[in-house]
């Protein structure tokens, strides 16, 4: 019953919301999300199985049940739905509210069906629907009809990976001869095609390189809060959920070097791209891609520790990435844009958002004691563990990439914090700002920030113990050299307190005086370096200069490549097919006329020609009779 | 009443309607007669399906003339008949407004009704010769309908379609004669389970691939776009091209046994058609030609389903016939509304119509999703079963190529949608007429509902 409620209620009310006005849509969605969250928690403590005979002849039975992995994923989806809806009381004028709330509820319901379903056909169907919902969101959320290519681009990238998923699923169903998602323990070596196709499906949804380009474009188009929900949370939960199922349940757990490499490249490419972004939404979405790299690396390492690290990082990522997108939404609502090249200096104007964004930035950069560090540390440990046993050069590369990626993430967020919150801005600009920090926006952000902190400091006592280990059906985390989060936190506190004391005791005074310009005009303001220019030097170093150049030319875009190759093939096929020899009609006509003209020339009307024919015919007949 | 009588009655009513509509001078009366006869015929087919599935059969009249059993009734025929009459009926409704300002409307309604009548005749044919006769009547109707506007171009394209399909059907007739020589009967029931040689199968299949515009006989279908839009919808979606696939299924899946190498040949032709037509659709700029290539490509899937000849792939092929008929009719008729309102067919000259024609835009998108095979649309189930069949028969490479075809479908459908309905507004036209829009809406609704409730169709497919 609880399973039905958590799926049915948002599904039905999501459709109804489509026809409601703004305020009603908000309140209805909020009530549904609170209700769903409560039910999801209840669901965790009780195991249920619901079977709805939708198409029993085709084995497409809606068979829903909750094991620990599914239950906790449902709690996570419910929590983020509640957080984002609560936050979204006021959305920007240019967006359609009914589409906004309806899409969130429907996405929530569909992702829950995928997570709870034990039937592979049902997963396949709703997997496709999830992609369609993203398309509909991008296509219909804005009131203006522009930039339609983004919606199509998204659908094409997701469509390509979903078709791979489709084929992989049918191959799986046929090869394993079952429709049930169970512990199948298939061997990867003998079923490489199935594994690859199923993984591509998950990678597309997650937005891993090379299927990543839809994510920045989508984030740019849709409201930041929804980006946080879709890109930051739901797609990651569903994608990682499925990847865990594939690597752990459907196939025998093993190391996947190629996947690890993909993960490492995702970390590096996305973080380099993020470093040079001028648009906050795009920057955040590139970081969302980069962080998936860590999860992929963890899960594909094939160790228990790696999977724990990957899944824990997924949970942490959903927390800080949603928080970052919500902060971005606040910035956009307040200032009207998210351009990082314009200094905003919002730290005094949006104090709460500043603190929360700082917490999220430190978390994503992997700074202790916040949650990002805890999960990254476990992933590093898994890689080191793997390195001790295999001594593989790939693992070394992956480990270095992960560490390097983390450092670059920090660099990128220094830029964000500086530009958005700490930079100096003129009073006239500040006067234009509209204060949007209300209770309903601060509370969800605060909760997320606190969770980022708790999941970092008490990583082993709370999230790993109560969420991650039960999710993966592991009993305990046994590993060398665990990160002592609490001890480190206490030491950090001591350090900060000492620093404050030293500062207070130092009796340091700042002298404010006039600047002497020796008769020249004051150009100090113009001389200030905008945050977007912080890392321009990286852009000039080879080979980064080449990579950035290619990226600017859109030559690293999978979509462009794919579209280009398909267009090339299409025009090649067209030029071949249009050859006369392949045109039955033209070719046939030509033959008929050629043969006709031969006979026609023989019927010239001259008596001697006909006499010659009669003579030849008599000769042939005589020969036939004689022989 | 015996089932045979119902078939005969539904067919006769249509024939009568066709000839009456030709005789009447008043266009309104003509279309009324045509429409009424199609409605009646549709209900008779419905009644027939009810009788068939509830085993209500009284055999007081047996239609066997000189050992020729005229009719055959099975679930395959019933599904096809229901689809053809239903989609045909909707296209007739659409024609009311679309054709209202053209001359010779009585001729139009005559040929369309005759077209549907001969389709019904062909579907229920239990005999190869009877099948061939109806086959050729449809060729004549399509010939006349394609060249309906009577311009030089229209006449040339009509002739092309007629000649290419006739080339195929002439070879098929040769095949039918060889069947009689080898097995001594034209009756499908008597021929069931008989093994046929490759050369005979080849002659038979040429007719079918020519009719369904498969490679290398695909050339006539894109050119047939010069016909009025309801006619192209009728040709592409419901009647003409479906004759080829229907007969293919009837002869190679439900009647004869073929050799494995010939089966492989069929599969190769289908996959090539899917890919080549998909690529061609991707390069075209004329909206009707794109949809025509799309039809060729999608028919490749139906052929593939039948060619693989595993139970689930055959179910998939039949299911996809229904899905494709509904969705493709929806796409063509939406394109027809666009053409009717803007007088433009080049997608590069169109744009921004979703603002002024929102219902048509959404319907086009929904029908497009069904053709692509996205979940919750009926096309998904058709393709799912076909792919399942391909994989069950152990042809993984074929499935990979077929999947590329699906990706191509996604590309060209979205390309058309983006160019025509999104982007910069180039025409300030309103959505009209209500009847035309309503027909398109019904078709897209059905495309979606059959995806949600595929059981409705699956229950009818009993093989």
Briefly say what this structure is.
Chain A is mainly α and 627 residues long. Chain A has helices at residues 2-17, 22-44, 68-87, 97-116, 120-140, 148-176, 192-206, 214-221, 224-250, 257-275, 280-300, 304-335, 351-364, 371-390, 393-422, 427-432, 439-457, 463-472, 485-505, 524-527, 536-540, 544-552, 558-577, 584-602, 607-626; strands at 49-55, 60-65.
SS element count, helices of chain B: 20
Overall radius of gyration of chain B: 21 Å
The separation of the N and C termini of chain B measures: 25 Å
Shape of chain A: globular
Strand order of the largest sheet of chain B: 1-2
Question: pLDDT under 50 segments of chain B (min length 5)?
Answer: 58-62
What structural category arises from helix and sheet content of chain B?
A: mainly alpha
Shape descriptor of chain B reads globular
Strand residue content of chain A: under 5%
- Overall structural class of chain A, as computed from helix and strand content, comes to mainly alpha
Number of strands of chain B: 2
Oligomer: heterodimer
Largest interface: A-B, 42 and 45 residues
Give helix and strand order of chain A, one letter per element, not per position. HHEEHHHHHHHHHHHHHHHHHHHHHHH
How are helices and strands ordered from N to C of chain B? HHEEHHHHHHHHHHHHHHHHHH
Tally the beta strands of chain A: 2
Query: How would you write the strand order of the largest sheet of chain A?
Result: 1-2
How does the major sheet of chain B shape up? 2 strands, antiparallel
Strand fraction of chain B equals under 5%
Integer average pLDDT of chain A? 84
For the largest beta-sheet of chain A, the strand count, sense and barrel status come to:
2 strands, antiparallel
